[in-house]
Amino acid sequence: MLSPLSLFLLSFLILLHPTLARPNDPPTVCIIGSGIGGSSVAHFLRRYSSGPFSIQIFERNGVVGGRMATVNVSGDIFEAGASVLHPKNFYALNYTQSLGLKFKTPSSSSSNSLSLGIWDGKKFAFKTLLVRSDLPFVDKIVSLANSLLMFLRYGFSLLRMETFVETTVDRFLKYYGSLESRPLFETVDGMLQWAGLYNLTTRTLQEELVDARLSPLLIQELVTVITRINYGQSVFINGLAGAVSLAGSGGGLWAVEGGNWQMAAGLINRSDAALHLHEKIESISYLGDYYELNSTLGNSYTCDVVVVATPLDESNIQFTPQISIPKRKLQHTHATFVRGLLNPGYFGLDAVSEIPELVGTIEDPDLPFSSISVLKQHGEKDMTYKIFSRKRMANVLLDSIFSVRQVTIRINWGAYPHYNAPEVFASFILDGRHLYYVNAFENAASTMETSAVAAENIARLIISRFFNQLPLTSANMSSDSGEQILHLDL
Ligand SMILES: Cc1cc2nc3c(=O)[nH]c(=O)nc-3n(C[C@H](O)[C@H](O)[C@H](O)COP(=O)(O)OP(=O)(O)OC[C@H]3O[C@@H](n4cnc5c(N)ncnc54)[C@H](O)[C@@H]3O)c2cc1C
Question: The domain containing residue 308 runs over which residues?
Fold first, then answer.
């Protein structure tokens, strides 16, 4: 039995060192955000470490996935945010396959399966052929004819654009190398420099493409259409975000059937993480040798490691002590879903069938939208469309663009960083201790895969810096601990 003096001393010690209050508890990693970034950190922590530790994930919404979200338009489910993945997005491929999810070709993408028109506000500056047929050989001929039309307009610049994109993608593939071949990165700058990608973030896409000898017409039209669709911004975004955006408009794009958010749900499930839905974290305080998180539900959590897996740009999380990160603005993209029918008169055309399935736009402040694409054709006069714009689409405007509008759903996304070259990055480690920031990488380029790649690096940082371990490699990993890097032909 302890004497009163020993009891007093013990409680005094506990007050001095609150972690003594839970001496036998395994360490706790707290993750803020259940998007692909947060769920990937949980996944890679479990995959690379065999030690006992608990993972707590906090999500302010009632569903997981963050910017991977679906929208229900009169009974049909479509991607509302992140919609397409590149065929070389190997982490996403692995997640999808190992979680038993199904691959599908997205209903809308800027790939050449859709007829494309470049709208300049008065006319279509360029249009590909629009011929729908059930006969594969007709589709093939139309596709070849469209490639020829593109070549006639943009010439060999198209090939130079392809080379620029391929070179960048090849450099990015270094991040999938073996664990032994990849250093740990405490800074985004270091991570980009190692792969030979840093310089691209110091210059605009326009500068990069001029150096790569692309014609002004290609940059002003097709390239602009793509950056406006993918990032709601012009060719003045940084060169890396630009290359990623162009890569996301090529062939072989894919998505997860039923919604990309299922990758996050599956990873969280498999990581044995405690998920706190509807729980927004308001403050993160460092209190000696642990962190305290406070939530809007009035709960406090004690964490040994904290991972912020959401952009801090519009978040009002209070940090004690304060942290300092470079200023960054988010680009807001308004996604408007309409079931109805476009008005051909708005485009100076006689029939709806003459309107391309994907209408892209050039950079002109008077243009009220970035793109309009057909998501589904229900009947000849009944379609579902997705519109991207920088501002909210007012009803009067929609009524001039559509002749029929049965259902309208609007989503205002704090979508991705407003890119600026040269980019200045926050560190992956926010306080020099165990407070980590996945979305520091996001102003290099914002995609599901780049979030996963940044998350993988952060999981390894935690294992090395907090657990003082080396990550388990494929050689010493148990057979059920995760998937291998797959290279799939889709
Ligand atoms: C319209 C649009 C189209 C896009 N298209 C593509 C595409 O086709 N392909 C592609 O690869 N990428 C695309 N992206 C980008 C992609 O969605 C993002 O890069 C990626 O999903 C980011 O994932 P994340 O986990 O880092 O952040 P998020 O998905 O934003 O996850 C952060 C999570 O944290 C939660 N959260 C925030 N603050 C708190 C708090 N205080 N407490 C608790 N929870 C909090 C949020 O609710 C959210 O769920 C698109 C994005 C948008 C908006």
Answer: 28-65+259-328+423-466
Q: Are residues 104 and 170 in the same domain?
A: yes
Whether 137 shows a pLDDT value over 80: the answer reads no
* Whether residues 400 and 386 fall in one domain: yes
Q: How many residues does the chain have?
A: 490
Q: State which of 310, 330, 389, 436 you would mutate to test the pocket of ligand 1, scoring each by most atoms of that ligand within 8 A of its C-beta.
A: 310
Does residue 188 belong to any structural domain of this protein? no
Asked whether the whole model's pTM tops 0.85, one would answer yes
Query: If you measure from the C-alpha of residue 274 to the centroid of ligand 1, how many angstroms do you get, rounded to a whole number?
Result: 20
Please tell me if the CB atom of residue 470 comes closer than 6 angstroms to any atom of ligand 1.
no
pLDDT digits (tens, 9 = 90+) for 170-183: 999 999 999 999 99
- Cα-to-centroid distance, 185 and ligand 1 (Å): 22
Beta bridge partners of residue 412, listed in sequence order: 334
Per-residue confidence band for 383, with pLDDT thresholds at 50, 70 and 90: very high
Chain centroid offset of residue 191 CA: 18
Residue 6 lies in a domain: no
Query: Is the pLDDT assigned to residue 252 strictly greater than 80?
Result: yes
Please answer whether residues 57 and 275 qualify as being in contact, where contact means their C-beta atoms are separated by less than 8 angstroms.
yes
Nearest CA to ligand 1 atom 19: 447
pLDDT tens-digit series, residues 469-480: 887 765 555 433
Q: What CATH number should be reported for the domain holding residue 141?
A: 3.90.660
Mean residue pLDDT across the chain = 91
Distance 308 CA to ligand 1 centre (A): 12
**Is there an atom of ligand 1 within 6 Å of 90 CB?**
no
